[in-house]
Amino acid sequence: MAANRGLLLLLLSVAALAGVASAAAASFISDGVLQAGAGSTNGRRLLQAKKDCPMDFEFKNYTGIISRCKGPKYPPKECCGALKEFACPYKDYINDLNTKCADTMFSYINIYGKYPPGLFASECRDDKKGLSCDGVPQQDSASGGQRAQSSSFALIGLMCGLVVLLFH
């Protein structure tokens, strides 16, 4: 019985650490995503089937990008700032290169904004990792990812409470 409780405690501890680690994930839009938005692909990615994006980008509000990022000069400060404000709340989705999220998001941005190919990839980069989301305000209705993350914390809390009950 004690061995089973020890194993259960170990498993719950690992689950809790995994939840904390996912919460501390990097806060940036990866360079690979920006390149995907530019339409570049590499041979290996062409052979891999991508999953559909769980986030629906079709009906998002693109007004912030379109109103601030205007041609013919497309000022980098305004365009990249608008891209960050729009995309950073969805960074967990668009950084997943196994899904079509980045492609879908950039497709709608380009449809609504009529931007030249590769505009954001060539203009927007904070460092070698990509576009930093640090300091970008998160929208209240940002993403299911934030709701999923908070519900995973609730689940971890519930599991910890159950462990406490088991050991009393």
Key attributes of the depicted protein:
2 strands; globular; two-stranded antiparallel sheet; 168 residues; mainly alpha
Describe the fold and architecture:
There is one protein chain. With about 170 residues, the chain is mainly α. It is about 60% helix and about 5% strand. It is built from nine helices and two strands; from the N terminus they run αβαααααααβα. It has helices at about 1-25, 30-35, 45, 65-70, 75-85, 90-95, 100-115, 120-125, 145-165, and strands at about 30, 130. Strands 1-2 form a two-stranded antiparallel sheet. Helix 1 (about 1-25) runs antiparallel to helix 9 (about 145-165) and helix 2 (about 30-35) crosses helix 7. The protein is globular and about 65 Å long. The chain starts with a helix and ends with a helix.
Individual helix count: 9
Pairing-aware structural class of the strands and helices? mainly alpha
Low-confidence stretches: 6-24, 140-151
Rg on CA atoms, Å: 20 Å
Distance between the termini: 14 Å
In terms of DSSP E residues, the strand content is under 5%
Order of helices and strands: HEHHHHHHHEH
Short structural description:
This protein has 168 residues and is mostly helical. Helices cover 58% and strands 4% of the residues.
